[in-house]
Amino acid sequence: PLNMHGGEIKFENVTFGYHPDRPILRNCSFTIPAGQKVAIVGPSGSGKSTILRLVFRFYDVSEGRILIDGQDIRDVDLESLRKHVGVVPQDTPLFNDTILENLRYGNLNASDEEVMSVIEKVKLDKLVTDLPDGVETIVGERGMMISGGEKQRLAIGRLLLKDSPITFFDEATSALDTHTEQALLKTIRSVFRESNKTNVSIAHRLRTIADSDKIIVLRNGEVLEEGTHYGL
Ligand code: ATP
Ligand code: MG
C-alpha cells in the first residue's frame, strides 16, 4: 500500500507517449511539494491532462519514475494509490443514476448529512430544490439532463466527499458561468487552503494561477519553467 506522509509528487525524467513513436512528455522533471497548491499551465495538447492520467496510473511511463512521498507509484497497489488521489477530470464521467448516488461515488460511506453539506458547498442546492425529485433525480446517460457547469459541480462535490490527501483539478475552460465560478472557486480555495492537502490545478484561468504556491509551465512535452507567480 501507499505510505503517505505529506503527499509530495515527483516526476523524474519522465518520458511517455500513447504511441511509442510519438512521445507526449519528454524527459520531464518537476516536484509538487507536499501540501502545496500547484498550477500546471501550457498550450492545448502540451500534455497537462496526460500528467494526471500518469499519476492515476491509467498509463505507465515509458522512461523515468513518478514518486509519491518517495515511493515509485508502480510499486504501490492500484487501489491504495487511487484511494489517495482524487481527480476532477475535464469531462466528468457521470452515471445514469441519481444526483445522490453520483455524489456518493466519491465515498460510498458518506452519510446523507455529509452529502447534503457538500451539495451546499458546490452550490447545487438551488438545482436540487427546484427539481421535483430533488437529490433522487436521475441525471441521464452521461449526465445529459444537467448542464456542463452542474456536471462539473457534481464532480467537485464527489472530490470533496472523497477527501483524499492529493487532489487534481483539471479545470474545464468554459463549463461554468462567471458568477457561479467565482463562488465555487472561493469555496474550493477555502476548503483546500485550510487543509494540508496537495492540490494540483491544471489551469486555464489567471485567477487559479495567481493563487498558486507554484506554477509549472509545459511546452511541447517539456517543462519550460517552474516557479512562483512572481518569479516567472
Ligand atoms: P488541453 O489543454 O486541450 O486539455 P492537454 O495539455 O491536457 O490539452 P493532453 O490531453 O495531455 O493535452 O494531450 C496531449 C497530447 O496527447 C495531445 O496531442 C493529444 O492528442 C494526445 N492524446 C491524448 N490522449 C490520447 C490518447 N488516449 N491516445 C492517443 N493520443 C492521445
Ligand atoms: Mg487537458
From TrEMBL:
<comment type="similarity">
    <text>Belongs to the ABC transporter superfamily. ABCB family. Heavy Metal importer (TC 3.A.1.210) subfamily.</text>
</comment>
<protein>
    <recommendedName>
        <fullName>Iron-sulfur clusters transporter ATM1, mitochondrial</fullName>
    </recommendedName>
</protein>
<comment type="function">
    <text>Performs an essential function in the generation of cytoplasmic iron-sulfur proteins by mediating the ATP-dependent export of Fe/S cluster precursors synthesized by NFS1 and other mitochondrial proteins. Hydrolyzes ATP. Binds glutathione and may function by transporting a glutathione-conjugated iron-sulfur compound.</text>
</comment>
<feature type="domain" description="ABC transporter">
    <location>
        <begin position="9"/>
        <end position="232"/>
    </location>
</feature>
<comment type="subunit">
    <text>Homodimer.</text>
</comment>
